[in-house]
## 1
Amino acid sequence: MGAAALAISVFLPLTERTGVFSMVQNNSLIQHGGWILLLFAIGIAASGVGASQGRSYQWIWCLVGCTIAGAILIYTGSDENTRTLYPVGPDGAADITQPGVVAPLGIAIYVAGAGVVAAAAGALTLAGFGSDLGGDDEELVRRWAEEDSPAKKKCPDCAERVLYDARVCKHCGYRFGDAIPKLEPKPPPPDPQAAEREVRCHNCSHVQQEAFNVTLTSCDNCGATVKLPRGKREAAPAPTVQKRFVRCSICDAEQAIRATAQRFTCGKCGETMTAPPA
């Protein structure tokens, strides 16, 4: 916008009409050397486009062009010879032998000055000046927004961000909230060899209790020796495997693994990962 205003200004009046001079010949800025400002406007626009596309140090050329164009405007506006109006002679040329009048500046100088200021401000913006103002506050607001975000939460152990619904941190294994209850091992079944059975004495028919693994005893009533048949042996029960429940840090699926397992493969997503400590 600044370069466009500078380019348009060269076609606007340099001086205003004043006194007896109701009409002024050759009054545009370009007719008083303003064509160079048009070239600077094109250069400023080109360097501004380059800076906006990320090209290094293009904003410097834009700022240099604005500085030179501003100096030309100051020189042109302060030169009273340029703004002195003389009566026109019969041949159509200005009669400099007659007393002249210094006319006030026209709209061209003001439009060009505004364009130079706007272009310089744009160059400084592209350079990053002023972008750090309030940066600390913006960073705090961004962090607060992340901490309050329903999609993520911070692990209090390793400070990494994980899914809000995750129960176990995938980075360090930290458990959020209450720990997952462990699966209590079932008590082993009674030893069939230690169970008791009824035994009848062959001498006095007395009935008494004896262990399954006893094959020879004496009657409590008559003292006779009683030989017992060997009890039926049952198959030893399979050892009980202690398990615990864990959750996958990828899909959050819950599953049971051995209590001593250090790694496991998720049955839902197929990912292999380290099991959190029990």
## 2
Amino acid sequence: MIVLQAQKINKSFADQQVLHDVSLSIKVRERVGLVGVNGAGKTTLLKCLNGLMAADSGEVSFSTGLTIGYLEQLADYEEGITIWNAIMASYSGILNLRYRLNELEAAITRGGSELEKNMARYARCSEEYELADGYACENTARRILSGLGFTPEEYDRQAQSLSGGQKTRLNLACLLAKSPDLLCLDEPTNHLDISSVEWLEEFVKNYPGTVLVVSHDRRFLDKIATRILDLRWGNISSYEGNYSQYLVKRAANDLAWQRAYDKQQEYIRTTEAYIRRFKAGIKSKQARGRQSQLQRLERINRPRQEKGLALRSLNLKQESGHDVLRLQGIAKSFDQNHLFKDLDLNISKGEKIALVGPNGCGKTTLLKIISNRIAAD
């Protein structure tokens, strides 16, 4: 069953057309990755599909009763809202049912002429509550918060005091808790450490609904995607499989496109040469016929090359020695938050180093110490 369908979506900003006759459909339980270079229009398309931005033309339709959740990359929270308040607000429907059940329990205890009606109401409300998995919502909230790197000690922390990255993680947690039929995620692995990304991979793979995700994280897309939508130059192409499979298929398609274009260009050149040679001679009739064929020919667009990242070569005034960096006994704390102490590190010439660790462990702080932007204790 198709849960979302878009037909001929167009969107321009000033004189730049970002989306050109984009059509797509997404089926129930699919995990679809939307990919493309920066500026291709992925977030624009996602917002048009969600109704958060108006397309210049085209139609978007959904299956009846479909609920949609959209993760924006920016988020903010009102003063006084804690992390726990924020995620529990995602269960507002369940909490309303719980409040109604408490009211009906009190009414049944009092008895009176409405006793039988209240008992029937309680039975219906209780069934609805169980179907919504109301008894498990607190445990589910804790599981989601834990998976995204929040500890129980942080639950009472004011959401407004969180960093931008922490707010984005909390926003993701709240959206996952709502469990919409169609989950739309824009760069969900931003601000997640490795363990949180791995947790999110499993969550998305086992999600009961449909998922549409914009991501540059190849490993994440390899783990979760069942189909890839490739947005290039305003047009969209669909590839079954995960990201690695998409790369192979796209390369084959691009090669076939280039070969078809080259073959047609050769045909055009030879035909034009024939026309020039014989248009005034005894074969002028054949030349006019070939001219008509050229005019009716559906031209293959010239394959375009995506721009790569241009890196300037670095001219070193002086070669370094074998030991490029040596740290000994480095310590750093912020108030009572002790990030690291007695840290030793040696980096040799030619090494390529990845610095990894959970959120908040001090990776950025260490880089700033190494680059002399802040001082170690």
## 3
Amino acid sequence: MTEAASQNPVHAAALRRMTPEDRDWVVDRHGALYSDLFGWGEDFRAVVAAICDEFLLRPDSEDERGWIAEIAGRPAGCIAMCRRSDEEAQLRLLIVDESARGRGVGRLLVERCVGHARRRGYKRMVLWTNAELTGARRLYASAGFRPVEAEVVEQFGSRWVSEIWRLEF
């Protein structure tokens, strides 16, 4: 079942549950974007693939969930909510395809993920991001997340600022 994001066909997006069949699209989109932006290669793709495999191979659970946003029946973005503890969920795998940016897809995905975490009774959500992803950071801030930790790291063949953001419910 899908849910329309808007009645305006220019902005229309629908959300559906992420399935194992979505794995390759999720890995490919992350790999392509982060390769273009930061030159990250197979090491990063392997991390995304491992996250997908871990998440998608778990038994179906209301405490964890992934969504794919579709526009005109084609994947346009994704997000996942993963359980870290009884009190904490993690927002993971957010990406919006370049062709769908500026159409509210990212906001729709984040709102659904955060709303689901609240309904499941988590007390907070955390996420990990790159400080250079200014659009994503604005989206996270508008959803109530705040940066709580930043660290310069050398990972995936480059030096960058890793950030942890938190949202208390």
## 4
Amino acid sequence: MAVLEVNFISETLMRTVPMHVILPADKLPMPGEKRKPVKPFKTLYLLHGILGNYTDWLYGTRIQRWAEEKNLAVVMPSGDNASYVDRAQEHNYYGQFIGEELVDMTRKMFRLSEKREDTFIGGLSMGGYGALRNGLKYSETFGYVAALSSAFFFEHLDSLTEDGMYFAQKRSFREATFGKDLEAAADSDMNPRYLVKKMKENGDKFPEIYMACGRQDGLLEDNRAFARYLKAENVSVTYDEEDGSHEWDFWDRQIKKVLDWLPLDERQAGRSSGNVGLGINMEK
């Protein structure tokens, strides 16, 4: 397994951007085995939450170990606090970056499958919202979406004030991210509900969707409501709850469930540092 840090100039963001990439690497073949041909890797684009960056998933979970077991490439970009949407005023086209440029760039850099059914997007909190929004908007690219503890920014607009203890709960933060007219933004492709409606009107093919939220998470009711909405619209969704709050222990458990849910193959057996003694006769 190779873990790479990559920096490249983004045309959509007009600056150098970083990302971590987990790439399956060939294990040494077991005695008597032949090395199997390497196919293009299935790929998960994995988005961090607010206040985070491209290092979060790698250091907060065991994603590297589980990606190796599943022969999965994982791309983890930085999204700042921009919620993975496009804001032309600041030349922050984070939606286009995630849904188009990042996919195109990584496919040129690495041996990644270009098939829709092999291309996945996921995230937590703000990144869960970003995965839903961009997984739906770019549904011709992403065949599967995994949204954990998602922040649904367009719920409860009438009750937003400046009195929230947490800055992301304040109206000023939402306006800075989505524009001054939040009601208009809610009726645009920034809102996953709007995208579902438009996709149904156009007869577009939906990605498979996995959602999860902890029972002690303040975002639980919003996640339940969106899962119910998807089911009411006859959109395929797998919804999971378990004990846990808005924390890494929960996301660590859930990302393993996500990888079990995705259409992945166990990687071929081989020798690595984790099983170096397997099959070796140590007796003299």
